[in-house]
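Before surveying the methods themselves, let us examine one representative protein, pairing a chain with its fold in token form.
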Amino acid sequence: QVQFVESGGGLKQPGGSLRLSCEASGFIFSNYAMSWYRQAPGKERDLVASIFAGSDTLTYYADSVKGRFSIFRDNGKNTLYLEMNSLKAEDTGLYSCNAGWMRPTFSDWGQGTQVTVSS
């Protein structure tokens, strides 16, 4: 059974930083690209960043987060991370992860972790 458990969210002031984690199970983590998604209130889930399966240097970032966010992974721990810096109010949303390069592979989603950026 595929499972994702996201954590690390919270309330931050603009300009702050957070590190999100996603623990994955039920599939061979190292064989899959992985992605982070964000769902803002009243909006659809959007892609934030993706990382390739075989190379930590092959990544994709949405224009809105490029230069501020960094996606990386620890295959030994089956864990995906998102380092978020210089946070902005528009980064607010529920962050979830899934396998796949730029689009979700599995229909199963975790509960997500809420990020709220507000002064």
Summary: The chain has a mean pLDDT of 96. The CA atoms of residues 25 and 102 lie 19 Å apart.
